[in-house]
Amino acid sequence: MALQWMILAYVVAAEVVLVSLLTIPAPKLLKNQLVSLVSLILQPAMFIVPFAGFQLLDIYWKNEHRLVCTSEICTATERDRYEKTVCHSFSSRFNS
């Protein structure tokens, strides 16, 4: 998962560089060429926004549905409670 966040950070850094290049004063012809280049690059990269949303949902899901044990070894009742919460969350999502 760290690799996915690293790729996302690189994409955001590239967007910051492109935005800073677009906002500096430059001749109109240079800006038009830069805008066309940026649009050609960003069209295939439009999967980044759903990817980031998926990553955030994945983090939320893992945080909300993690197995919580009172000691180093989980007991059978703790595993049962975990399975019931996961099954309950699935049934409440699909029944609404």
From TrEMBL:
Biological process (GO), any one: endoplasmic reticulum to Golgi vesicle-mediated transport
Location, primary (coarse class): endoplasmic reticulum
Subcellular localization: Endoplasmic reticulum membrane
Protein name: Endoplasmic reticulum transmembrane protein
Function in brief: May play a role in anterograde transport of membrane proteins from the endoplasmic reticulum to the Golgi.
Organism expressing this protein natively: Linum tenue
GO (cellular component) term, any one: endoplasmic reticulum membrane
Membrane topology classification: Multi-pass membrane protein
Transmembrane segments: 7-27, 33-57
Keyword Protein transport: yes
Transmembrane helix keyword on record: yes
Family stated for the protein in its record: Belongs to the BCAP29/BCAP31 family.
Signal sequence coordinates: none
Keywords attached to this entry: Endoplasmic reticulum, ER-Golgi transport, Membrane, Protein transport, Transmembrane, Transmembrane helix, Transport
